[in-house]
């Protein structure tokens, strides 16, 4: 990070702080809190005559994205996109994978289709001054669609409903405005045509096999073939939720796919994959950890993330910088 960037982030402007918070709220789909925060804490710019400057454009200062907080129209456009991302995520977490695919094709068609022109630039190359976050999971449309179809297959094998949100967990007040989806009541065993259901599941597995065989990369085909074999093991159990392959029916499995789809939407719409606050925290953690491992000594007057005051000259004579601890940092009093 350049010295000018570091200096700016160590002494942020009110507008930067406002946009950091708003960026975090929007990125994590806290739509109601984001609306209230934007309404009550918008930074107003004044001209020399004291009149408010309306609709000032979005700016970028020192690597921190600043959204157009004073433009009601721009903010509503952003918020509507956030709500769509949250709705798709809720579909997946509720096990309604087909509904998520329909909504993705309608609102974000480039996520699952390679035929759609994508405005997002190529994958960023890491440089000394580049703080872009690269997704740890694939954002290729063919991979995403296969992951969704495999999840839909495992959900079709389910015999015990998995409710979302769980009854033991409170419903987030910042969830999207639409009500949570209700999980269908389990159908009694005697009312289920087991033979017909098994046949339908086998046909779905065959379609998945045909779909993965269209992947151009041999390594990808081998990886997904192994995954499909494991997931197909659900067919061998009357109650797969109590089997050795029950991990494919957990909420964590849904969450992993939902997170991957969310990152793909952000990439295809030209937005950062993680919030600016998380990016800066990750950068700070790695920087101070590396300095600690190499025995770097802090300079007098340096700002330490492990304490609220600057280091004195006597404290830095033999002191090696401490690794960054986010929980400790958040507990510090200014």
TrEMBL record:
Residues 196-297 form the CRA domain. Pfam families: CTLH (PF10607). Signal peptide: none annotated. This is CRA domain-containing protein.
């Amino acid at each position: 990070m350049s010295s000018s960037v570091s200096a700016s982030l160590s002494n942020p402007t009110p507008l930067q702080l406002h946009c950091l918070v708003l960026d975090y709220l929007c990125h994590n789909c806290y739509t109601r809190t984001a609306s209230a925060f934007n309404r009550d804490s918008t930074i107003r710019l004044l001209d020399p005559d004291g009149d408010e400057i309306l609709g000032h454009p979005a700016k970028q200062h020192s690597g921190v994205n600043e959204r157009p907080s004073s433009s009601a129209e721009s903010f509503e456009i952003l918020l509507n996109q956030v709500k769509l991302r949250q709705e798709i995520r809720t579909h997946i977490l509720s096990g309604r994978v087909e509904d998520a695919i329909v909504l993705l094709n309608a609102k974000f068609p480039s996520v699952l289709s390679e035929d759609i022109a994508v405005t997002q630039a190529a994958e960023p190359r890491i440089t000394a001054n580049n703080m872009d976050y690269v997704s740890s999971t694939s954002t290729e449309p063919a991979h995403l669609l296969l992951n969704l179809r495999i999840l839909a297959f495992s959900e079709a094998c389910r015999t015990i409903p998995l409710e979302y949100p769980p009854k033991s967990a409170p419903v987030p007040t910042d969830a999207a405005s639409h009500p949570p989806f209700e999980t269908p009541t389990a159908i009694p065993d005697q009312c289920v045509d087991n033979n017909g259901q098994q046949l339908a599941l086998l046909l779905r597995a065959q379609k998945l096999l045909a779909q993965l065989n269209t992947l151009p990369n041999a390594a990808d085909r081998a990886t997904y073939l192994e995954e499909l074999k494991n997931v197909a093991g659900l067919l061998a159990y009357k109650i797969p939720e109590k089997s050795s392959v029950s991990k494919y029916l957990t909420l964590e499995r849904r969450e992993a796919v939902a997170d991957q789809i969310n990152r793909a939407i952000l990439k295809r719409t030209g937005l950062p994959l993680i919030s600016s606050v998380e990016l800066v925290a990750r950068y700070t953690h790695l920087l101070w950890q590396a300095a600690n491992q190499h025995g770097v000594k802090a300079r007098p007057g340096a700002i330490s993330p492990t304490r609220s005051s600057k280091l004195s000259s006597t404290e830095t004579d033999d002191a090696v910088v401490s690794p960054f601890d986010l929980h400790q940092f958040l507990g510090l009093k200014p």
